[in-house]
Amino acid sequence: ETMLSASGVVHDAVKAGSLQVHGAYFDVTTGKLTLMGEHPSSSQLLLTQPKVDLVRTASAVAVPAEEAFAMCYSGNARYAGGQGGSMKVDDEDLLVQLSEGGQNPVSI
């Protein structure tokens, strides 16, 4: 459920039919794997596009150094390509989180 409702990449690929997400349960005691299939509410979950994580709020978890470097590198490439600052945030929930809790940048 989380993959379909939180990841835009997974959501879009499943909706386009280029990816299937199936659940499974692995019992470490017996070594038995139980396949559960697709989420029973997947069609309902695909109706709502996941929110895009444009800004890291103060509650965001720490980012490993390699991931932070990749994020900064791609952000710099966008800026150098003339696309810096073009994102408009109109998500009311995100704006409230930012105004009440602040941001948590990956680097300073």
Automatic annotation (TrEMBL):
UniProt GO MF annotations: carbonate dehydratase activity; zinc ion binding
Protein name as annotated: Carbonic anhydrase
Q: Which organism is it from?
A: Haptolina ericina
